[in-house]
């Protein structure tokens, strides 16, 4: 938004800004924030930053937790979720060393920047173009509880078919089970909210390609943006989630990107469309003799992603709930393969993307429970490893598969299936992470910390009895 400090000062004066808010990314992928009255505005704030305790963000041990956040002028935006006029900023985390401040090597935003710089240094491409699909549910009630003697959850959606027999305040037009795809008004209850979100995103330079109701009957939605360069899309992904959740909350509803919030309904994915460009041209465009008209580099990039998919899952789908989504029958991938126009494959090549500049493929198993900066960086590093080692996806046995994988089982195919749980994915990451550490993009410390944290999450869920177990096993 601003090119320099003077631009910021002029805007503050001319727009009666009252507060400056700073969004600091957690390792897990969320934001925390700190707010400063505008009277404290100074050039030093944007040059020296301010200190914070990194141990509360998942980045550091308590004994070495002092860190500094330095805001980035160019990321400023007028934050509409404050009563007082507020400017919010993203930025980068620095660590304190005997030599002074330096960029913190394990800051997720910095990791993505390093991965993109590594791609350019290797002279592979000068742009990593990304197009995520943001799927989420809008619900009208959410409650949950976990006590020693009681646990459960309850969600509700006014438009869901389970409310079709409601006797009060019921106007009909319910959306059936898994029947929400592209539903029109009046079934599409929150279409205006999606439009309002899209318009706010447009104000911030995030271009919305389209929005629509998704498959899930009890209020599943999707916003898809135009494809953008990796640095911009990392920040945009954080902002999109922020705007979706806060604008829903303002309207008296609630939004969740949780991978599988409702049993038996479609889950929320975070499908990532990928392209590499160099000197303004796609290097994924290839001869017609190649599969889907993709270049050798595109196929090798795809080969790297597919080869490392089991390990990537621990970063791109890093919740126990992720693996409740990745099951047969819900348009989520289950087998590690590639295909054209096949949503049951891990890597899907859009059959309609035939123009040279549009040649691309999407990685479908990821979801928004991850950190988008790490998701994008890890996919890029896997693909670059594939280009470096010329990993041919067909020779590796990844396809192409033009059958419905849901109708196949492990006895019928030699395909490798996705990890069945977070624990399995973490085991794969422990075995296969050297590709992430090339160029010192990811560090061993970060990978170990990520695995340790996620294992604790998995153990926490694994050791807690749940209502279904009472139903199945109480009378044993």
Describe the main β-sheet briefly. 10 strands, mixed
**Overall morphology:** globular
Helix content: 25-40%
- Low-pLDDT ranges: none
- Mean pLDDT, to the nearest integer, reads 93
Q: What fold name stands as the CATH topology of the largest domain?
A: Creatine Kinase, Chain A, domain 2
- The CATH first-level class of the largest domain comes to Alpha Beta
Question: What's the Cα radius of gyration?
Answer: 23 Å
CATH fourth-tier homologous superfamily of the largest domain: Glutamine synthetase/guanido kinase, catalytic domain
Structural class designation: alpha+beta
Beta-strand content: 15-25%
* Total strand segments: 20
Number of domains: 2
CATH architecture of the largest domain: 2-Layer Sandwich
Total number of helices: 13
Distance between the termini: 64 Å
């Amino acid at each position: 938004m601003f090119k320099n400090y003077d631009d910021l000062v002029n805007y503050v004066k001319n727009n009666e800004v009252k507060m400056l808010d700073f969004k600091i990314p957690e390792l897990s992928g969320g934001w925390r924030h700190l707010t400063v009255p505008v009277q404290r505005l100074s050039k030093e704030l944007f040059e020296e930053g301010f200190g914070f305790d990194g141990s509360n963000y998942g980045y550091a041990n308590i004994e070495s937790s002092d860190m500094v956040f330095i805001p980035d002028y160019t990321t400023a935006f007028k934050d509409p979720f404050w009563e007082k006029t507020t400017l919010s900023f993203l930025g980068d985390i620095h660590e304190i060393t005997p030599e002074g401040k330096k960029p913190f090597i394990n800051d997720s935003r910095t990791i993505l920047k390093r991965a993109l710089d590594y791609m350019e240094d290797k002279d592979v491409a000068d742009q990593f173009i990304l197009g995520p699909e943001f799927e989420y549910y809008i619900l009208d009630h959410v409650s949950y509880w976990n006590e020693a003697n009681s646990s459960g959850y309850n969600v509700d959606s006014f438009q869901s078919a389970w409310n079709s027999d409601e006797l009060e305040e019921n106007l009909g037009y319910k959306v059936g089970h898994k029947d929400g795809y592209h539903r029109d008004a009046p079934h599409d209850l929150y279409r205006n909210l999606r439009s309002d979100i899209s318009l706010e995103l447009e104000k911030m330079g995030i271009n919305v390609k389209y929005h629509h109701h998704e498959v899930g009957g009890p209020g599943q939605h999707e916003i898809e943006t135009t494809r953008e360069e990796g640095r911009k899309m990392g920040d945009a992904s954080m902002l999109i989630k922020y705007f979706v959740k806060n604008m829903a909350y303002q309207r008296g509803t609630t939004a969740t990107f949780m991978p599988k919030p409702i049993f038996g309904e479609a889950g929320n994915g975070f499908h990532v469309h990928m392209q590499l460009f160099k000197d303004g041209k796609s290097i994924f465009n290839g001869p017609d003799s190649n599969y889907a008209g993709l270049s050798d580099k595109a196929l090798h990039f795809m080969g790297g992603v597919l080869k490392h998919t089991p390990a990537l899952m621990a970063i791109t789908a890093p919740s126990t709930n992720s693996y409740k989504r990745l099951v047969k029958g819900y348009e989520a991938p289950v087998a590690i393969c590639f295909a054209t126009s096949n949503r049951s494959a891990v890597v899907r090549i859009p059959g309609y993307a035939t123009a040279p500049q549009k040649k691309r493929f999407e990685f479908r198993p990821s979801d928004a429970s991850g950190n988008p900066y790490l998701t994008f960086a890890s996919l890029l590093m896997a693909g670059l490893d594939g280009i470096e080692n010329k990993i041919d996806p067909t020779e590796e046995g990844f396809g192409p598969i033009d059958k419905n994988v849901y109708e196949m089982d492990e006895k019928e195919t030699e395909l490798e299936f996705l990890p069945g749980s977070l624990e399995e994915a973490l085991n794969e990451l422990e075995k296969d992470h050297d590709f992430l550490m090339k160029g010192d993009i990811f560090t061993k410390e970060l990978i170990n910390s990520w695995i340790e944290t996620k294992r604790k999450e998995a153990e926490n869920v694994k050791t807690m009895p749940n209502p279904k177990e009472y139903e199945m096993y109480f009378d044993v």
